[in-house]
Amino acid sequence: MKRILLLFSAAWLFAGRVSAPAQETGQEKEKRMQWFAEAKLGIFIHWGIYAVKGIDESWSFYNGYISYDDYMEQLSGFTAARYDPDAWARLIRESGARYAVLTTKHHDGVALWDTGAGELSVVKKTPARRDLIDPFCRALRNQGLKVGLYFSSLDWSHPDYPIFTSKEKRYADDPVRWDRFLAFHRRQLEELATRFKPDLLWFDGDWDFPAEKWNAKALRDQILRWLPSVILNSRLNGYGDYDTPEQGVPILPPGSRYWELCMTMNDSWGYQGNDRNYKSPNQIIRIFADCISMGGNLLLDIGPKADGTIPEEQVQILRALGQWTRKHAEAIYGTQSGVSPYYFRGPTTLSKDRRTLYLFLDSRPVGPIVVKGLKNKVNRIRVVGDGTKLSYKVIGKQYWSEAPGLLYIDVPGDVLDRQVTVIALLLDGPLDLFPK
Ligand code: JFZ
To answer: What is the CA(204)–ligand 1 centre distance, in A?
Structure first.
C-alpha cells in the first residue's frame, strides 16, 4: 500500500514538473539564458507616433506637456514611408549587437501590429496602414539576430485602465473593469507571442500595481507555455529572468547573474530632433566595456523618425561601435566578468575557458600597466585585433611567499586603439588569483 502511494505521488510530482515551466532547474535556466549571456550588446528601438512631433514618448501627455488630443494627432503623421527593416537589421548587425528590442506598444497604447484586441494601432489609425512588427522580426532573423519585443503593460489609452494621466484617474476600484483590462492585456500578449515568436519579451510599465493584481506569476507561466525558451526582462513585477539596473551605469557589480543596462544615446528614447546631446562613441564604448566587465549586457537605444529612417547621428554611432566590436570580438562575445579593480584598474573580461584575461585600457598609460595578484604564469601577452606581442615582467616576487609579484606590461603608443585598447593575457591555466 505504501509503495503504491509512493508511486502515485512520484507520478504526480513528475507531472507537475513537466507542466510547470516555473520549476525549471538552474541548469535549464542557464541553457535558456545562454544566447543572452553571450550576446553582450543589444539595440533598443523606440519607434512610435511620438516621433512625429519629436516629443517624449507617452509621458508628454501623461505629464500634461501636451493635451491627449494633440498627442494623438500625431497618428496622422506616422507614415513609415521609408521603413526598411532590412537596412535596420544590417546596421544593427554592423554595430556588433546580437539582438534588438522594438517597442510594439508604448504607454500611449498605440500598437505597431495589427492587433485584434482594440482599435488603436498604426494599421488602423495611421497612414502607415500596415503591421510593422512582422517584417522587423524577419529582417532580424535573416541577419542572425535575436528578436526582442518591448510591451508596455500599462496602457493610458485603454478605457479600462485605471489611470489616464498624472492628474486624471478613470476609476479606483472596479474589479469588472480591471478584469476586462487584464483580458485585453493577455490577448495582446498572446498575439505577440504566437504571431511573432520573439526570443525575448521586454516588459515595461508594471509599477502602478503589485504582482498579484497583474497576475504576474500566472502570466509568466502562460508565456512560457506559448514560448518555452523565451527570455523575460525584470519589469514584470520581478517575475523576469534578468535585472535592469535602475540608476544608470552601475558603479558596483549588480550582483545578479544576468543583467542588462538600457541606455539612450542622447537624452531621449524616441526620436527628438532637438536633442543633440549625444554621448560620444568613446563614452559609449567605455560604458559598454564597464557592463561586460561586470557580467552584464548593454541595450543601447535608437529612435527612428516617423518615416522609419534612423537619424544620421545614430547611424554614425552604431558604425563607430561596429568598428570597435569587430576588432575586439574575442574579448566581448561569450566572455564572462573579469577580475575586480583591486587586481587591475580598468574593465576586464575572461574567456569561456578562463585561460585568457582581457584588459581594457581606456586611456593612454604613462608607464607600464600593472596586474596584481595573478598566481598564474603568463604564457603570452598580445594586443587584441592588432597581433602585436607585448613584453612584460614580474617584479617583487618572494621565494618564501605565496603572494605573486606584480605583473608589469609595456604598452607602446603605436598599438593603442583610438577608442579602447584591449590586451589579452594568455595564462598557463584557468585564472588563479591571490589570495584565495
Ligand atoms: C520606461 C519608460 O517609461 C520609458 O518611456 C522608456 O520606454 C524606458 C525604456 O522605460 O522608463 C523607465 C522605467 C523604469 C526605469 C527606468 C525607466 N527604472 O526602473 O529604472
So the answer is: 7
